[in-house]
Ion-translocating oxidoreductase complex subunit B (Parasulfuritortus cantonensis), 185 residues
Amino acid sequence: MIMAILVMAGIGLMLGIVLGWAEVRFRVAEDPLVEKIDKILPQTQCGQCGFPGCRPYAEAIAKHEADINLCPPGGEHGVRQLADLLGVEFKPLGAGKEPKPKSVAVIDENTCIGCTLCIQACPVDAIIGASKQMHTIVANACTGCELCLAPCPVDCIHMEVIHESVGNWKWRYPVFPIHEEAKAA
């Protein structure tokens, strides 16, 4: 019995060593430009740019397959940052891509039938609930992407604009730009 345990532990140890070596040996280096572009994007994962999320959009920008002005949640400030980073000319937001005010989804609890379609559509897991039970939105996690509106069969979800007040106000943009050299120090 002890011999079998030792043999299994030895096999596990050897497989761990082989997998660790393979991870180091076959590591795929990621494009640092994609990382920088992704940090500029708002991370709403809304798909308004035509891509399934911010990371695929960043990869398309880095490969010159997409324009820098397709992200409404990023607004003109995001487009300016991308233009500065890539050394290209600033372009206003694309046609039909007007920035919307910051909003959050709200579920009418009396109308919700608990179908879970909104939960499946939410890219940031901001909706909680169970099948045949009322659902609710975690307001702090909701990015306002509106992807939960279309799948709802009873139209119990609506968007509420978040009005800026002293309680929820924060700097939208850094006051002083933080350069990569300063971060490294």
In short: The chain is about 35% helix and 10% strand. The mean pLDDT is 85. The chain has two domains: 32-97, 101-165.
